[in-house]
Design brief:
This protein is mostly helical and 278 residues long. The protein has a domain of 124 residues: Tetratricopeptide repeat domain (Serine Threonine Protein Phosphatase 5, Tetratricopeptide repeat, Alpha Horseshoe). 72% of the residues lie in helices and 0% in strands. Helix 1 packs antiparallel against helix 2 and helix 10 runs antiparallel to helix 11. The radius of gyration is 24 Å and the shape is globular. It starts with a helix and ends with a helix.
């Protein structure tokens, strides 16, 4: 499909359509989706000169994304230099993508360089940049460092959002630190930051994995009150977990709610209910 898209772009004048930076960006994006990063590089280097197209910010950001996804984040410095020459100012997306790329490659010193570079552009990291840093550290199972970064945000008077908390909660859950995940969830609510559905689902899933079925039930009920219901496998795990700690009536009640909400799954829930202790 990508080959077809490239051929169409090359022959577009035969169709009576004028090539533009917009169509170039669409082609680059298609190459990124196809994970053909060599083709991204080729298109970026050859097509603007060949067809007289001036790259814009979206062009550069797409190429930056490709370089970082392919493990070549250091190559982005040359892109930023070209942007300078062309007087095309990078934005938070440009730097956020590069920061995530360097974290993925575990090049922590380069992250610091990028943050310093942002200051030269008179850009101050907002919560979106901090969220990228926190998520990147959590992905590397360095959630304690991410939490230290989070504490720094609070000390500077910045306000974290639900995405910030979600990354931290997911990170600590993956590392098996459910107590810290629960503390963060409570802290989130106390600060008036409303959890989204992903936050509830993540916590219920990992609480069940960790055997904390009482808290999982509590969080699940809160989520369901907002019409957010975890997937079937998580709910089944919770039901089985409640049975394992002799909370059969609670399990039965949960099954009843699921049967009311999801008619298509009634047979599966009936089968599970039939296996409950009397």
């Amino acid at each position: 499909m990508l080959d077809h898209a490239v051929r169409t772009f090359e022959q577009i004048d035969e169709l009576g359509i004028t090539r533009s930076v917009r169509s170039l960006n669409a082609l680059l994006f298609a190459s990124v989706v196809a994970k053909d990063y060599k083709e991204v590089r080729r298109i970026f280097l050859e097509f603007p000169k060949m067809y007289g197209i001036v790259p814009d910010l979206d062009t550069y950001n797409t190429v930056i994304k490709a370089f970082c996804a392919s493990g070549s984040s250091s190559s982005v410095y040359s892109i930023l230099a070209e942007m300078d020459r062309k007087k095309c100012k990078p934005n938070a997306v440009s730097f956020g993508t590069l920061i995530a790329g360097f974290y993925k490659e575990e090049k922590y010193e380069e992250v610091g360089k990028v943050l310093n570079m942002m200051e030269k552009y008179n850009m101050h990291p907002g919560i979106s940049i901090y969220n990228i840093r926190i998520q990147s550290l959590c992905k590397l199972k360095r959630s304690s460092e991410a939490k230290a970064l989070f504490d720094g945000i609070l000390s500077r008077g910045m306000k974290p959002n639900s995405v910030t908390y979600l990354h931290l909660i997911h990170g600590f859950c993956r590392e098996g630190n459910l107590d810290e995940a629960k503390r963060l969830f409570k802290n989130m609510v106390n600060r008036g930051c409303q959890p989204d559905s992903d936050c509830y689902f993540t916590l219920v899933h990992f609480l069940c994995q960790g055997g904390d079925f009482d808290t999982a039930l509590e969080v699940c009920k809160e989520s369901m009150a907002k019409a957010w219901v975890p997937n079937f496998s998580t709910m089944k795990s919770l039901v089985n977990g409640l049975v394992s700690i002799s909370k059969v009536e609670e399990a039965r009640e949960l099954i009843g709610k699921m049967k009311e909400r999801f008619y298509k799954n009634v047979d599966m829930w009936n089968e599970i209910e039939a296996g409950l202790p009397r």
